[in-house]
Amino acid sequence: MRRLFSLMVVWGLLRSTECLTLERETSPQSQSSSVFLEQPQSFDLTDPSFVFMRGEDNALHVMNYCTQQEVNTINLEEFFYSMTFTLDGRYLLLGSHNGEKKVSILNIQTWQQARPITKGIIGNPVLTVTPDSNYVLVSSPTDKNISIINLQTLRTSELRRDRCPISIQPTPSGQYALMANKHSHSITAINLYDVQQEGNNIDVGQHPGNIEITLDKKYALVANRGGDSISRLNLQTWQREGTDIPVGDFPTVIQLTLDGKYALVANHDSASISVINLQTWQKEREDIQVERNPRCIYLSPDKQYALVTYADTSTMSIINLTLWRREDNDIDGKIEGPLMEILPNTNKALIYNANNKNISILNFYTWKITPWTLNFYPFYITTFPLSAVERLKKQQNNLFHLQQQNRLTDITIMTFKGRN
Fold first, then answer.
1. How far is CA 40 from the centre of its chain?
2. What are the tens digits of pLDDT across the range 136-150?
3. What is the dihedral of CA 158, 161, 164, 168, to 10 degrees?
4. Region 158-185: what's the mean pLDDT?
C-alpha cells in the first residue's frame, strides 16, 4: 500500500510539472494537420553550451558552440520563418508563412507538436511572447490583423485594426500589449485578458516605432521616427509624461544599459547614438557619431561596452559606456550585415547572417573572433531561457529526491538529465 501511494505521489508530481495537454476542443480555430517531428534523442536542455539554430533545410539544429559540433537535429516538415522559446521553457513556438499564417507549438519535454494554429495573414509572422508566457501575439508589418493565442487553453482571439502595427511590446505583467500606430502618432494599450483596448489612444511624437520598457517596469519609451524624439509613457496612468526628449535624426532602436540607468538610441539618418539619462530624463552630452546608418545595438555582459552593427558591412563599432565615446578601433566580425546572439552567463556572442554558412564567435574580453563553419544557413539562432533553466533544475531535483526517498528505482522520472 505504501509503495502504491508513493507511485501515486510521483505520478501526481509528473502531471503537475509537464506541459498542458492541448485538446482539439479547446481550440476551435485549430487545424487537424500537423508538422511531422522525428523523435530526437535525449539531450540536456540546461547545458549552457547549447544553442538552437533554424536552418534553411527545414530542421532545428541543436549545436554545441564550445565544440562546434551538432548535438541533435529535430526534423520538421516545412520551413518556419520565426521561432522563440516561451520564457518558462515549456514551449518552442514556430511561425510559418506558406500561403497562411501558422504557429506550431512544440512541447520541449517530448519535442512533439501540441497542435498547429492556422490563420490567414499577409506577410511573414512575428511572434511576441508575454513575460509570463501566457500569451503569444502573432503579427506582421504588412497585415492589419493580430492573432492572440492563449498558451494555457490554446484558444485564439483576433484583433482587427485599421492599420498595420509598427511594433508590439508586452508590459512586464503580461496583461497588456502596447502597439505603435504610425499614422495616428499614438500608442494603443490592449488588455490581453479580454482583448479590448484599455482607454483611449495615447498621443506621442510623429511616426512612433520601437517601444522599450524601463527596468523598473514603470515606463515605456517610444522612439518617434518622424519627430526625432523619445516619448515617455507612465504604465500606471497610461499617460504621456513630460516633454519629449530630442535625439538624432530618425531614431529606430532603443537599447537600455544593463543597470537600467541609461537608454542608448540609434539614429539611422544622422549615423549617431544618443544617450538618455533615465533618472533625469535628459539627453546627456553630444551624440556619439558612428559609421553609416546604425542597425542594432548590443551590450557586452560586463556592462562596459556597446557594439553597434550596420546593415551593409561586417564592421562593428565599440562604444565605451564608462567614457561615453567611440573607441578608435572597430571590430571586423567577418559577417556582413550581422545579427548577434549574446550567449547567457558567458563573455561570448555568436555573429551570423542567414546568407552565410560561416558564423563568428566573439569574445567580449579580448575582442577575438573565432570562425565556425556550418553545413547549413543559420536563419535564426537562439538559446534556452535562463529563467527556464532554473525551473527545470529545481523540478528535476525535486523528483529525483522523491524517487530516492521512496526507493522507486524502476520508474523513469525525467527525459532530460539535470546539471548539478
1. 24
2. 998 887 778 888 999
3. -60
4. 90
